[in-house]
């Protein structure tokens, strides 16, 4: 089975940097996704890691350590529109298993 | 532009009613999924399908069934709705080579919020 942990809530200030952690224990691993979900909307793709290391994409970066079962999503230069839920999801043999999500609140 | 369309954004049903949630994708994806999303529990997989007429149970299949008669359409059925099935239902699709760099990325519909009274 899969067990995925991420913090329930985080708060940060506009312009700051925030790191959202995700730890996982899985019976099969074929990559890790991060999705963003605004209230009342569908999740949308942010990043994908399958090899160890950092993937950078504009203001967002994602890191993976397979040996530690650990990933983080780094958001820089926070904007008010970044207030959303961030979902960590592990790709197993055939399906994605999601963590419970981290609600990020960005304040002025 | 890729699209996953769910038939109803909001539904209100009564206990014991049969409920159909429809999902259509226009990306020719092989795989389709039904998740439910609840506060504090996140997204949980109900059923998925790899091909027409194929179905596999996810983590929480009890009380649900599915139908996939055509590649583009995946239906979720609640045979006798109960109040604990009040939830947001999300349909998604993928293929082994979908999304950025063939990651198998999931594409989601907008969701169907079901309330069972």
Helix content of chain A: under 10%
Radius of gyration of chain A: 13 Å
Radius of gyration of chain B: 14 Å
Q: Structural class of the helix and strand makeup of chain A?
A: mainly beta
Helix count from the secondary structure assignment of chain A:
0
Main beta sheet strand tally, sense and closure of chain B: 7 strands, mixed
Shape of chain B: globular
Q: Return residue spans of chain B where pLDDT drops below 50 for at least 5 consecutive residues.
A: none
- Estimate what percentage of residues of chain A fall within beta strands: over 45%
**What is the straight-line distance between the termini of chain A?**
41 Å
Written overview of the protein:
The complex is a heterodimer of chains A (108) and B (117). With 108 residues, chain A is mainly β. Helix content of chain A is 0%, strand content 59%. The radius of gyration of chain A is 13 Å and the shape is globular. Chain A starts with a strand and ends with a strand. Chain B has 117 residues and is mostly beta strands. Helix content of chain B is 0%, strand content 50%. Chain B contains no helices and 11 strands. Chain B has strands spanning 4-6, 10-13, 19-25, 31-38, 42-49, 56-57, 65-70, 73-78, 87-94, 107-108, 112-116. The N and C termini of chain B lie far apart (37 Å). The relative contact order of chain B is 0.31. The model of chain B has no long low-confidence stretch (mean pLDDT 93). The interface between A and B is medium-sized, with 22 and 25 residues.
């Amino acid at each position: 089975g899969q067990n995925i942990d991420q913090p329930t809530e985080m708060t940060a200030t506009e312009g700051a940097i925030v790191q959202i952690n995700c730890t996982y224990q899985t019976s099969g691993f074929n990559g890790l996704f991060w999705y963003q979900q605004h209230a009342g909307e569908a999740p949308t793709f942010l990043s994908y890691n399958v090899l160890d290391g950092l993937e950078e994409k504009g203001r967002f970066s994602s890191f993976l350590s397979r040996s530690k079962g650990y990933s983080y999503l780094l958001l820089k230069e926070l904007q008010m529109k970044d207030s959303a839920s961030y979902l960590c999801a592990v790709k197993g043999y055939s399906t994605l298993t999601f963590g419970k999500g981290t609600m990020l609140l960005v304040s002025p | 532009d890729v699209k996953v369309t769910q038939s109803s954004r909001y539904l209100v049903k009564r206990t014991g009613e049969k409920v159909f949630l429809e999902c259509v994708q226009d990306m020719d994806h092989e795989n389709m999924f039904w998740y439910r999303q609840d506060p504090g529990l996140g997204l949980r997989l109900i059923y998925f399908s790899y091909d027409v007429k194929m179905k596999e149970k996810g983590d929480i299949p009890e009380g649900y069934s599915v139908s996939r008669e055509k590649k583009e359409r995946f239906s979720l059925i609640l045979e006798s709705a109960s109040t604990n099935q009040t939830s947001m239902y999300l349909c998604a699709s993928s293929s082994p080579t979908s999304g950025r760099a063939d990651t198998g990325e999931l594409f989601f519909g907008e969701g169907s919020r079901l309330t069972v009274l």
